[in-house]
Specification:
The chain has about 100 residues and is mostly helical. It contains four helices and no strands. The longest helix is centred in the C-terminal third of the chain and has 31 residues.
Amino acid sequence: MIEGISIYELLTVSTILFFIGVYGFITRKNLISVLISVELILNAAAVNFVVINKYLYPEILQGMIFSIFIIAVAAAETALAISIIINLYRKISSVEVKEVETMKN
């Protein structure tokens, strides 16, 4: 592990990052802000994989491989979400969550 930093401190940072993402996902009204919050949640999961793998099995790279997979999925999710948001903006000239909900009817 990193000298002077315990696993508890790293997991605490990851937990705070996760809950900031959850809070942002629940409270934000802009689709871009919601997307950024989802990215925070995914990054917190990636940090957890790396920290726990490094603590339990320092010689195996399985946690790092999972975190690279999470980063790849997050990149694909971001590209897809941005394209959907751009198309919604072209149709209704807004990226607010409430106005997107009215398009369901």
